[in-house]
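Contributing new complexes? Match this layout with tryptophanyl-5'AMP.
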Amino acid sequence: MSDNESTSRKRIFSGMQPSGEAHLGNYLGALRRWVKMQDEHDCIWCIVDQHAITAGGDPAELPGHVLDLAISYLAVGLDPEKAIIFVQSDVPEHTELAWLFNAVTPIGDLERMTQFKDKSQRFDSIPAGILNYPILQAADILLYKAEGVPVGEDQKQHLEMTRDVARKFNATYGETFPITDPMIEKGVGRIMGLDGEAKMSKSLGNTVPVLADEDEVWARVRTAVTDPQRVRKSDPGRPEVCNVYSLHGFFTDEETRADIATQCRAGEIGCVDCKRILSDNIVEAFAPFRERAAEYHAKPELVREILDDGARRAREIATETITEVRQRMGLDWRSSIG
Ligand code: TYM
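Output block (do not edit by hand):
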């Protein structure tokens, strides 16, 4: 996190792909901080459906996923009174700016992105959208001239690319964009999945959804991988290598954690009991979110109004930037007539 984050009011932008409800990694790595930032900064929270289509997926499911993510946003405390909340495809200037940024982005830079290398392996014929994905992300951010972007660790390279795009654009066409600060919080930038092997990620099925009910949270948490050296309950465990123990750090009070660590090392508490405590604490921490989500699920038209209003407000800013960019790039031919 940058040092001056709390000292001056900044424009902040961030987004999430609509691949269903948000999970614990999204919450701890991003959403939790977004909620706090709304009081200190001018924040814009986006649902990036145009990024989501690069992953393929069933078009019939996408509208429902957008609604679910919007409800997750609102349920965890993103507040349309304090911030702009909207869907990317409602503001067509995102794709226009992405196209214009193609003019200043070397293909080599795009091909070097680790996410591109990973994702492209899944295709025989690689869609251009996967290569150009970071350009659209740069456009999302710079369309609002955002100074800060709170994200998890996995977005670092894309944000470096955003900074490069801004620098190149400014150097070629004149000072236009800020050099955005990637706000990655230490300790939560990469929450591990329940498998204890990979980053928590919807596509790997190793998540705990933020809005899951008690049974679902337990069904997930009980499958979590613990210290692999521990076979029987009486075997001494090593909390320092256990992912379940590290998740306790976010949900369980210090005293209980210290007890669990002592008992685990002495082989006095089993992994199932330890997971049960974690599961109960997650359920309790997220109970207010589930309640709020139920209210929004009952009133989807209210969510639509919030997103419509968000898109309108986002577009006011977007139109200003795109007009300036068109002029800088000579895409205002009428000016030659006077
Ligand atoms: P996405 O949708 O994969 O993830 C949304 C946010 O959640 C964070 N995150 C995590 N943080 C910690 N631990 C985890 N296991 C974990 N999993 C996810 C991500 O870092 C991210 O902050 N390309 C972006 C979406 C995007 C965007 C943008 C973000 C499009 N345009 C502009 C910021 C600004 C993505 O796929 O995030």
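Reviewers usually confirm one structural detail per submission. For this one: The CA atoms of residues 4 and 10 lie 10 Å apart.
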